[in-house]
Amino acid sequence: MKRNPRAGIWLMILAVTLFAIQDGFSRHLAETYNVFMIVMIRYWLFGAFVLIWALRRPGGLRSVATPQPLLHLARASLLIAEVCVIIWGYTIIGLIESHAVFAVCPLLIAAMSGPLLGERLGLRGWAAILAGMVGVLVILQPGSGIFTPAALLPFAAASMFALYSVLTRKASARDSSFNSLFWSGTIGAVIITAIGLPQWEPMTGLDWGMTAIYATVALIANYVLIKCYEVAEASSVQPFAYLQIVLVSIIGVVVYDEALDSHVMIGAAIVIAAGLVTLLTTRARAAEAG
Fold first, then answer.
1. For a tag site, which of 51, 109, 145, 259 has the least CB within 10 Å?
2. pLDDT of residue 188 exceeding 90
């Protein structure tokens, strides 16, 4: 497919807008119902979507055969755990602080890529990662009277998603991007169903409607993101992914009456700046290698 960076940027903006809306719905639903049940319903749609997509491809289900099933099992398990933990974090510390901490994820990916993928980061890259960790400390304020262990939930989620991302890159050496998506959706649906069904709670008609919207928005957001990476290099669109923090903050303030504290804004700014430095460093190394 022909590269179109401008289209990729707009697709990324659309994707993060949808992700922000998804997160707004997930906080409301998880405050009312069990987190596992909400994620399970979302994964039912996700799993059905990739299964139908696979069946329509040449070769059907044979086209998604994989030589590395255990790797995909690990990826799917990490993604399920990450989704549940970050949504749990929304209900305890809110959308704004959760996303401010979760913004450290690209830095964690860069840090993990060295030992797991053999990539070299260099002194400037490691300095940026260290700066990002300082930004997280500014947000969390450990040692202060307002710090709680629950504030570590989004950092745990970011760590799991970073490892999931690195393993996905590792899987791409032998599997297509669709294969990785298929196994994340189907294996994930099986895992979360086993966990979520025993936690089932009756839902009102209105909340069923909201859950359907939540699951649909999540599915469309992931599909748009896939299309974004099809038409543009990740390095050219990744800076626009940070727009999600702004959009989530608006939802947090307007819908949930969350406070936009100065230490959270300062810490998030440090984390984002460190992430952009890491991105530029990685891009420069790729250009040198190319």
1. 145
2. yes
